[in-house]
Structures are given as structure tokens and as C-alpha cells.
């Protein structure tokens, strides 16, 4: 019994990439290419999740005092305003 179901996918510009991979002989079918792409996405998401997890753990373990969100946004607005002024001066 089939454990998967056929789907239709519109690739647009990626169609040329798929055809080049098929022509190279690296893959035997479009399905193989799509499955490889999904496996690559799974690996990427797993790696990004791990990076995020480590950053959160490091942040939670950081003994420095917290900074209020409003203070952070005030500094960001100030920095942005300075950059905009610098850009205007460069024009």
C-alpha cells in the first residue's frame, strides 16, 4: 500500500534548476529532488532551532542585569536617527 500521495507543484523559476539536476543524472526523478530539498530544509530548521536554543540558554545564564525594553527601543531609535543623519550628510 502506498504511504504517500501524489501532489502537483508549480516550480516557476526553480523548474530550470530541477531540470538541470535531472539532466546531470544526479537524481532519477523530480520526486527524488523534492525529497532531497525537503530533507535539506529539515536539516536547516533543526540547525537553526539548535542555534536559537543555545542563544536562549546563554541569555538565561547571563548574570548581567536585564535592560528594560523601553530603554532598548529608545537606544535603537536614537541609533537609527543618527544613521539617517549620517546618510543625509553623505548625499
Order of helices and strands: HHH
The helix/strand class is mainly alpha
**How many H/I helices?**
3
- Average pLDDT, rounded to a whole number, is 94
Strand content: under 5%
Shape: elongated
Question: Sheet with the most strands?
Answer: none
Low-confidence stretches are none
Gyration radius over CA: 24 Å
Distance between the termini: 67 Å
Count all strands and give the number. 0
Helix content bin: over 70%
Describe the overall structure:
The chain is an all-alpha fold and 91 residues long. 71% of the residues lie in helices and 0% in strands. The chain has helices at residues 14-24, 30-61, 69-90. The chain is elongated, with a radius of gyration of 24 Å.
Helices and strands in order:
Blueprint lengths: L13 H11 L5 H32 L7 H22 L1
Quick overview of this protein structure:
This protein has 91 residues and is mainly α.
Short key terms for the protein model shown above:
single chain, 91 residues, mainly alpha, 3 helices, 0% strand
